[in-house]
Amino acid sequence: MLAGRLALVTGGGSGIGRAVCQLLAKEGAGVAVVDLNKEAAQETLDRLPKGNHAFSADVSSSSSVKELLKQIKTSFHMVPSIAVNSAGITKDKMMLKMDEESFNKVINVNLKGTFLVNQAVSQAMLADKVPNGSIINISSIVGKVGNIGQVNYAASKAGVIGLTKTAAKELAGFGIRVNAVLPGFIQTPMTDVLPKNVMEIILQLIPAGKMGQPEDVAEACLFLASDRSRYITGTTIEVTGGLFA
Ligand code: NAP
């Protein structure tokens, strides 16, 4: 479904990002696996067919993102026509006790990082006249409904939805689509740290009765990356098992 395409996947060293790398590669795309953690990115790369590459980059740094785009072009001799922004962090605390640093850090990685990659990738797509660009931003269902203890994270993910809708409007005329995926509770290292009693409460709220798997989110990304979604832009897809639908 993606033969001849190149995909840049941030957060590619773990969880959802890793599953996205594996599925897009299986569908024929070249994959630039990007993560802050180079070893984790390399571990993902080791599971992909030959010819792909791993990169270490900090999405919250504009110089790191610019350098990343240069390195990708040098390695693949083309620019990405697909970008999946899955890099993200949590630093949970009740709002009454949230320190400024935890707030800033989460906004910097989740929201500013998504902005920097959207901007750099779309600039590269325009410079190379990529005819069918697709950018997919991983937001979260809590960006829609909020979540106790996640005032920083929920704000960052709501921001990602606003960013996505704005970028989609600005870039549609250039043939670049921008959409967001809102996962619910997905089994990854990010949710592995949640206390058992909290997970039991969450499970009772999920109509499907179970957590999602990273592959469930990757399937939505594949659809949005491919030309099967060619007339879809500026929208969100919830992958939540019905939670808060
Ligand atoms: P994960 O397993 O923790 O993966 C996130 C990856 O992003 C990690 O490899 C992490 O590297 C990397 N990363 C962190 N900061 C970065 C930076 N500044 N630059 C580049 N990479 C960075 O989490 P996940 O569950 O797969 O989450 C992926 C995305 O889905 C995130 O945006 C998350 O907010 C979103 N999401 C997840 C869920 C869920 O239930 N799991 C639900 C809704 C939304 P390090 O390990 O080195 O930090």
TrEMBL record:
Which EC number(s) does the record attach to this protein? 1.1.1.239, 1.1.1.n12
Q: In which pathway does it act?
A: Steroid biosynthesis; estrogen biosynthesis; Lipid metabolism; fatty acid biosynthesis
Main enzyme class: oxidoreductase
What are the annotated GO cellular component locations? mitochondrial matrix
Which keywords are on file for this protein? Fatty acid biosynthesis, Fatty acid metabolism, Lipid biosynthesis, Lipid metabolism, Mitochondrion, NAD, Oxidoreductase, Phosphoprotein
PANTHER family, per the entry: (3R)-3-HYDROXYACYL-COA DEHYDROGENASE, SHORT-CHAIN DEHYDROGENASES/REDUCTASES FAMILY MEMBER
Protein name in UniProt: (3R)-3-hydroxyacyl-CoA dehydrogenase
